[in-house]
Amino acid sequence: MRITEVRIKLTEETDDRLQAFCSITFDDAFVVRDLKIIEGTNGPFVAMPSRKLTAHCPRCRSKNHLRAVYCNQCGTKQDADRAVKDQDGRAKLYADIAHPINSECREMIQDRVVAAYRQERELSRQPGYVSRYEDDFDVDFTGPDYLASRRDEEQKGAPPLASGDAPEKGPAKRDHTVVEPPSAEPRAPHTPVGKQPGHGKPRRAKGDAGGFGFGILDD
Known about the structure:
By secondary structure, the chain is of the alpha+beta class. The chain has two helices and eight strands, in the order ββββββββαα. The chain has a four-stranded antiparallel beta sheet, covered by helices on one side. It has a two-stranded antiparallel sheet with strand order 5-8. Strands 6-7 form a two-stranded antiparallel ribbon. A hairpin with a 7-residue loop joins β1 (3-10) and β2.
């Protein structure tokens, strides 16, 4: 097994320990993304792609991250000591998704990725520098390699591509159409109180010439 390609994406926050993201390709056939290059006390090292560990709420059985104090579903307070401890007594909060299982493979990945990282740092100082690292949102689903792989999957029984899954030319574009809110129903023009029918003349009670109750009742 050989590493045939390494792509580096430098982070913008240079003061952070996280220095870059990385993707590696094995034998021109298999890609692993989201490796992290972290600045340690003895220099940069490679961290494998990982996921957050979760635990079930004892009341509603919903999953919550091990750092959550309360359940995101029912609000029950969670046990602070529910995380598994490692050999050093630290809580294990993450688990590797992909990782080498022997020291030879780990050293091969470490040496190749760190060398590519240092080379990328040198290239980033040149004018017109552009990273070759591709995020998931930058994948062109109309490229010949993708379409060829889809045809192979369809021959093996995978469902065919729907008409809206891939545009005819170029990557998919976001729809920036502005949806206007529904307009309110037209209202009748406002008439001042003093000009409405029935107003303008004082209403007086029968037999009252302006005393108590004047203007309240009228025929």
